[in-house]
Amino acid sequence: MTFNALVVDKDEDGTTAASVQALADDRLPDGDVTVAVEYSTLNYKDGLCIGPGGGLVRTYPHVPGIDFAGVVESSEDSRYRPGDRVVLTGWHVGERHWGGYAQKASVKADWLVPLPKGLTTRQAMAVGTAGFTATLAVMALEDHGLRPGAGEVLVTGASGGVGSVATALLADLGYDVAAVTGRPESADYLKGLGAARIVPREDLAETVKRPLEAETWAGCVDAVGGAMLARVLGQIKHGASVAAVGLAGGAGLPASVVPFLLRGVNLLGIDSVLQPYDNRVRAWKRIAADLPMDKLEAMVEPATLADLPRLGADILNGRVRGRVVVDVNA
Fold first, then answer.
1. How far is 121 from 85, CA to CA, in rounded Å?
2. CA 46, CA 109: separation in Å to the nearest integer?
3. What are 91-121's pLDDT values in tens digits?
4. Of 152, 177, 213, 311, whose CA is between 20 and 30 Å from 326?
5. How far apart are CA 105 and CA 111, in angstroms?
6. Residues in a beta bridge with 300
Protein backbone atom coordinates (compact mmCIF):
# COMPACT_ATOMS: atom_id res chain seq x y z
CA MET A 1 0.00 0.00 0.00
CA THR A 2 1.21 3.50 -0.83
CA PHE A 3 0.11 7.06 -0.18
CA ASN A 4 1.03 10.38 -1.76
CA ALA A 5 2.96 12.96 0.24
CA LEU A 6 4.88 16.17 -0.26
CA VAL A 7 8.45 15.19 0.59
CA VAL A 8 11.15 17.76 1.29
CA ASP A 9 14.78 16.66 1.02
CA LYS A 10 18.08 18.43 1.48
CA ASP A 11 21.24 17.73 -0.51
CA GLU A 12 24.86 17.88 0.63
CA ASP A 13 25.02 21.59 -0.24
CA GLY A 14 22.10 22.35 2.07
CA THR A 15 19.67 23.02 -0.77
CA THR A 16 16.12 21.82 -0.17
CA ALA A 17 13.69 20.57 -2.80
CA ALA A 18 10.07 19.51 -2.43
CA SER A 19 8.11 17.10 -4.62
CA VAL A 20 5.02 14.91 -4.43
CA GLN A 21 6.03 11.26 -4.02
CA ALA A 22 4.31 7.91 -3.51
CA LEU A 23 5.48 6.38 -0.23
CA ALA A 24 4.95 2.91 1.15
CA ASP A 25 2.79 2.65 4.28
CA ASP A 26 5.75 1.30 6.24
CA ARG A 27 7.42 4.71 5.85
CA LEU A 28 4.90 6.19 8.29
CA PRO A 29 6.33 7.02 11.71
CA ASP A 30 5.22 4.96 14.70
CA GLY A 31 2.06 6.39 16.25
CA ASP A 32 -1.01 5.37 18.23
CA VAL A 33 -3.45 6.49 15.56
CA THR A 34 -3.30 6.39 11.77
CA VAL A 35 -5.44 9.03 10.08
CA ALA A 36 -6.62 9.13 6.49
CA VAL A 37 -5.95 12.82 5.92
CA GLU A 38 -8.53 14.73 3.91
CA TYR A 39 -7.38 18.36 4.20
CA SER A 40 -4.44 20.37 5.44
CA THR A 41 -3.63 24.05 5.13
CA LEU A 42 -0.76 26.52 4.70
CA ASN A 43 0.87 28.51 7.49
CA TYR A 44 4.03 30.61 7.71
CA LYS A 45 5.82 27.73 9.47
CA ASP A 46 4.86 25.48 6.56
CA GLY A 47 6.55 27.88 4.17
CA LEU A 48 9.72 27.60 6.23
CA CYS A 49 9.53 23.81 6.40
CA ILE A 50 8.91 23.46 2.66
CA GLY A 51 11.78 25.82 1.89
CA PRO A 52 14.77 26.84 4.01
CA GLY A 53 13.73 24.88 7.10
CA GLY A 54 14.02 27.82 9.46
CA GLY A 55 15.61 25.60 12.07
CA LEU A 56 12.28 23.81 12.52
CA VAL A 57 13.02 20.60 10.61
CA ARG A 58 15.39 18.23 12.38
CA THR A 59 15.80 15.39 9.86
CA TYR A 60 15.33 14.83 6.13
CA PRO A 61 13.56 13.56 4.08
CA HIS A 62 10.59 15.24 5.72
CA VAL A 63 6.83 15.59 5.24
CA PRO A 64 5.67 19.09 6.32
CA GLY A 65 2.17 20.26 7.25
CA ILE A 66 1.63 21.55 10.78
CA ASP A 67 -2.09 20.74 10.84
CA PHE A 68 -4.60 18.38 9.25
CA ALA A 69 -8.11 17.00 9.52
CA GLY A 70 -9.31 13.57 8.51
CA VAL A 71 -10.81 10.25 9.51
CA VAL A 72 -9.26 7.67 11.82
CA GLU A 73 -8.15 4.63 9.84
CA SER A 74 -6.77 2.57 12.74
CA SER A 75 -6.16 3.19 16.42
CA GLU A 76 -4.35 1.57 19.32
CA ASP A 77 -5.94 4.05 21.74
CA SER A 78 -9.42 3.51 23.16
CA ARG A 79 -10.33 7.19 22.76
CA TYR A 80 -10.43 6.89 18.96
CA ARG A 81 -12.07 4.37 16.67
CA PRO A 82 -11.97 3.88 12.89
CA GLY A 83 -14.34 6.35 11.30
CA ASP A 84 -13.92 9.10 13.92
CA ARG A 85 -13.27 12.55 12.48
CA VAL A 86 -10.31 14.30 14.07
CA VAL A 87 -8.26 17.47 13.79
CA LEU A 88 -4.63 18.11 14.71
CA THR A 89 -2.75 21.36 15.26
CA GLY A 90 0.57 21.94 16.99
CA TRP A 91 2.78 19.54 18.96
CA HIS A 92 5.60 20.27 16.45
CA VAL A 93 3.89 18.04 13.89
CA GLY A 94 5.11 19.06 10.43
CA GLU A 95 8.33 20.30 12.04
CA ARG A 96 10.04 17.64 14.19
CA HIS A 97 7.45 15.02 13.21
CA TRP A 98 5.98 14.13 9.82
CA GLY A 99 2.89 16.18 9.17
CA GLY A 100 -0.30 16.66 7.21
CA TYR A 101 0.92 17.14 3.62
CA ALA A 102 0.14 13.49 2.94
CA GLN A 103 -2.81 11.19 2.41
CA LYS A 104 -1.94 9.40 5.67
CA ALA A 105 -0.49 10.45 9.01
CA SER A 106 0.49 8.42 12.06
CA VAL A 107 0.52 10.39 15.32
CA LYS A 108 0.14 10.15 19.09
CA ALA A 109 -3.46 10.00 20.26
CA ASP A 110 -2.77 12.81 22.74
CA TRP A 111 -2.17 15.19 19.85
CA LEU A 112 -5.63 14.75 18.33
CA VAL A 113 -8.93 16.47 19.11
CA PRO A 114 -12.33 15.09 18.08
CA LEU A 115 -13.85 17.26 15.38
CA PRO A 116 -16.91 19.03 16.82
CA LYS A 117 -20.29 18.24 15.34
CA GLY A 118 -21.27 20.72 12.68
CA LEU A 119 -17.76 21.11 11.28
CA THR A 120 -16.54 19.32 8.17
CA THR A 121 -12.88 18.39 7.78
CA ARG A 122 -12.59 21.03 5.05
CA GLN A 123 -14.04 23.72 7.31
CA ALA A 124 -11.69 22.63 10.07
CA MET A 125 -8.74 23.30 7.79
CA ALA A 126 -10.20 26.56 6.56
CA VAL A 127 -9.83 27.40 10.25
CA GLY A 128 -6.55 25.51 10.71
CA THR A 129 -3.75 26.59 13.02
CA ALA A 130 -4.28 30.23 12.09
CA GLY A 131 -7.95 30.20 13.02
CA PHE A 132 -7.32 28.09 16.11
CA THR A 133 -4.71 30.64 17.23
CA ALA A 134 -7.07 33.54 16.51
CA THR A 135 -9.76 31.86 18.59
CA LEU A 136 -7.35 31.32 21.48
CA ALA A 137 -6.50 35.03 21.28
CA VAL A 138 -10.14 36.12 21.39
CA MET A 139 -10.83 33.73 24.27
CA ALA A 140 -7.86 35.15 26.20
CA LEU A 141 -9.07 38.74 25.66
CA GLU A 142 -12.54 37.79 26.87
CA ASP A 143 -11.10 35.90 29.84
CA HIS A 144 -9.44 39.21 30.78
CA GLY A 145 -12.64 41.22 30.58
CA LEU A 146 -13.18 42.23 26.96
CA ARG A 147 -16.85 42.63 26.08
CA PRO A 148 -18.73 44.08 23.10
CA GLY A 149 -19.43 47.78 23.53
CA ALA A 150 -16.12 48.53 25.27
CA GLY A 151 -14.72 50.25 22.19
CA GLU A 152 -12.76 49.38 19.07
CA VAL A 153 -10.71 46.19 19.03
CA LEU A 154 -7.59 46.39 16.90
CA VAL A 155 -6.37 43.52 14.71
CA THR A 156 -2.87 43.96 13.27
CA GLY A 157 -1.72 41.97 10.26
CA ALA A 158 -5.41 41.65 9.49
CA SER A 159 -5.00 40.37 5.92
CA GLY A 160 -3.08 37.29 7.05
CA GLY A 161 -4.51 33.99 8.18
CA VAL A 162 -4.72 34.72 11.92
CA GLY A 163 -5.80 38.31 11.36
CA SER A 164 -8.51 37.37 8.87
CA VAL A 165 -10.12 34.85 11.21
CA ALA A 166 -9.77 37.17 14.22
CA THR A 167 -11.47 39.96 12.27
CA ALA A 168 -14.39 37.73 11.21
CA LEU A 169 -14.81 36.16 14.65
CA LEU A 170 -14.68 39.42 16.59
CA ALA A 171 -17.09 41.13 14.21
CA ASP A 172 -19.56 38.26 14.40
CA LEU A 173 -19.41 38.41 18.22
CA GLY A 174 -20.46 42.06 18.10
CA TYR A 175 -17.13 43.87 18.47
CA ASP A 176 -16.17 47.00 16.53
CA VAL A 177 -13.08 45.84 14.66
CA ALA A 178 -10.35 48.15 13.38
CA ALA A 179 -8.21 46.17 10.93
CA VAL A 180 -4.59 47.14 10.27
CA THR A 181 -3.17 46.33 6.85
CA GLY A 182 -0.35 47.50 4.63
CA ARG A 183 -2.27 46.41 1.55
CA PRO A 184 -4.82 49.08 0.49
CA GLU A 185 -6.28 46.59 -2.00
CA SER A 186 -7.36 44.42 0.96
CA ALA A 187 -9.77 47.01 2.36
CA ASP A 188 -12.87 45.57 0.68
CA TYR A 189 -11.86 42.05 1.69
CA LEU A 190 -11.50 43.06 5.35
CA LYS A 191 -14.75 45.01 5.36
CA GLY A 192 -16.40 41.90 3.94
CA LEU A 193 -15.12 40.00 6.96
CA GLY A 194 -16.75 42.57 9.23
CA ALA A 195 -14.08 45.22 9.86
CA ALA A 196 -15.74 48.53 10.72
CA ARG A 197 -12.60 50.56 10.01
CA ILE A 198 -9.37 50.10 8.06
CA VAL A 199 -6.20 51.42 9.68
CA PRO A 200 -3.26 51.92 7.28
CA ARG A 201 -0.15 50.17 8.55
CA GLU A 202 1.90 53.36 8.35
CA ASP A 203 -0.34 54.95 11.01
CA LEU A 204 1.15 52.55 13.58
CA ALA A 205 4.53 51.73 12.06
CA GLU A 206 6.35 54.81 13.36
CA THR A 207 8.07 54.45 16.72
CA VAL A 208 7.33 57.31 19.10
CA LYS A 209 9.21 58.38 22.20
CA ARG A 210 6.10 58.90 24.30
CA PRO A 211 5.34 55.75 26.34
CA LEU A 212 1.64 56.64 26.48
CA GLU A 213 -0.68 58.04 23.84
CA ALA A 214 -4.44 58.60 23.83
CA GLU A 215 -6.40 55.58 25.10
CA THR A 216 -7.79 54.23 21.83
CA TRP A 217 -8.25 50.45 21.75
CA ALA A 218 -10.36 48.25 24.02
CA GLY A 219 -8.23 45.27 23.03
CA CYS A 220 -5.94 43.99 20.33
CA VAL A 221 -5.04 40.79 18.52
CA ASP A 222 -1.48 41.44 17.36
CA ALA A 223 0.15 39.33 14.66
CA VAL A 224 2.99 41.76 13.96
CA GLY A 225 5.05 42.29 17.11
CA GLY A 226 8.09 44.54 16.96
CA ALA A 227 7.74 48.30 16.87
CA MET A 228 4.04 48.17 16.04
CA LEU A 229 3.23 46.15 19.16
CA ALA A 230 5.25 48.60 21.25
CA ARG A 231 3.27 51.49 19.75
CA VAL A 232 -0.07 49.75 20.30
CA LEU A 233 0.70 49.07 23.98
CA GLY A 234 0.83 52.83 24.53
CA GLN A 235 -2.65 53.23 23.01
CA ILE A 236 -4.52 50.49 24.87
CA LYS A 237 -7.25 51.58 27.28
CA HIS A 238 -6.80 51.26 31.03
CA GLY A 239 -6.95 47.63 32.16
CA ALA A 240 -7.34 46.29 28.62
CA SER A 241 -5.25 43.61 26.93
CA VAL A 242 -3.23 42.73 23.85
CA ALA A 243 -3.06 39.10 22.71
CA ALA A 244 0.28 38.57 20.96
CA VAL A 245 0.13 35.85 18.31
CA GLY A 246 2.91 36.59 15.82
CA LEU A 247 6.11 38.41 14.91
CA ALA A 248 5.75 39.38 11.26
CA GLY A 249 7.26 42.76 12.14
CA GLY A 250 10.13 41.36 14.22
CA ALA A 251 10.83 39.55 17.46
CA GLY A 252 12.15 42.58 19.31
CA LEU A 253 9.90 44.72 21.52
CA PRO A 254 11.21 48.30 21.86
CA ALA A 255 8.64 49.13 24.53
CA SER A 256 8.40 50.78 27.93
CA VAL A 257 6.94 49.26 31.09
CA VAL A 258 4.90 52.45 31.60
CA PRO A 259 1.67 51.12 29.97
CA PHE A 260 1.75 48.15 32.35
CA LEU A 261 2.39 50.29 35.44
CA LEU A 262 0.19 53.33 34.79
CA ARG A 263 -2.65 51.79 32.81
CA GLY A 264 -2.62 48.19 33.99
CA VAL A 265 -2.32 46.94 30.41
CA ASN A 266 -2.01 43.17 29.93
CA LEU A 267 0.21 41.55 27.29
CA LEU A 268 -1.08 38.01 26.75
CA GLY A 269 1.12 35.50 24.97
CA ILE A 270 -0.76 32.99 22.81
CA ASP A 271 0.91 29.62 22.27
CA SER A 272 -1.03 27.26 20.01
CA VAL A 273 1.61 24.51 19.82
CA LEU A 274 1.54 23.06 23.35
CA GLN A 275 -1.94 24.21 24.33
CA PRO A 276 -3.54 21.83 26.90
CA TYR A 277 -6.17 19.40 25.65
CA ASP A 278 -9.11 20.89 27.57
CA ASN A 279 -8.48 24.37 26.17
CA ARG A 280 -8.12 22.91 22.67
CA VAL A 281 -11.54 21.31 23.00
CA ARG A 282 -12.95 24.59 24.34
CA ALA A 283 -11.50 26.52 21.39
CA TRP A 284 -12.83 24.10 18.77
CA LYS A 285 -16.28 24.26 20.36
CA ARG A 286 -16.14 28.07 20.12
CA ILE A 287 -15.08 27.79 16.50
CA ALA A 288 -18.01 25.50 15.67
CA ALA A 289 -20.46 27.74 17.54
CA ASP A 290 -19.26 31.27 16.75
CA LEU A 291 -17.15 31.45 13.60
CA PRO A 292 -19.24 32.59 10.60
CA MET A 293 -18.66 29.88 8.01
CA ASP A 294 -19.81 32.06 5.10
CA LYS A 295 -17.09 34.57 5.92
CA LEU A 296 -14.64 31.75 6.43
CA GLU A 297 -15.35 30.44 2.94
CA ALA A 298 -14.63 33.90 1.52
CA MET A 299 -11.06 33.63 2.86
CA VAL A 300 -10.30 30.27 1.25
CA GLU A 301 -7.96 29.57 -1.67
CA PRO A 302 -8.05 25.88 -2.65
CA ALA A 303 -4.80 24.06 -3.35
CA THR A 304 -3.29 20.62 -3.95
CA LEU A 305 -0.06 19.01 -2.77
CA ALA A 306 1.54 19.94 -6.09
CA ASP A 307 0.80 23.65 -5.47
CA LEU A 308 2.62 23.76 -2.14
CA PRO A 309 6.22 24.47 -3.25
CA ARG A 310 5.00 27.64 -4.99
CA LEU A 311 2.61 28.64 -2.22
CA GLY A 312 5.25 28.00 0.44
CA ALA A 313 7.47 30.60 -1.21
CA ASP A 314 4.52 32.97 -1.58
CA ILE A 315 3.61 32.93 2.11
CA LEU A 316 7.20 33.66 3.11
CA ASN A 317 7.10 36.72 0.83
CA GLY A 318 3.76 38.02 2.12
CA ARG A 319 1.85 37.13 -1.03
CA VAL A 320 -0.83 34.93 0.58
CA ARG A 321 -4.09 36.41 1.85
CA GLY A 322 -6.57 34.60 4.05
CA ARG A 323 -6.53 30.82 4.20
CA VAL A 324 -5.15 28.16 1.83
CA VAL A 325 -6.96 24.82 2.14
CA VAL A 326 -5.04 21.84 0.74
CA ASP A 327 -7.00 18.87 -0.59
CA VAL A 328 -4.36 16.16 -0.18
CA ASN A 329 -6.35 13.72 -2.34
CA ALA A 330 -6.81 16.01 -5.35
1. 8
2. 22
3. 999 999 999 999 999 999 999 999 999 999 9
4. 177
5. 12
6. 323
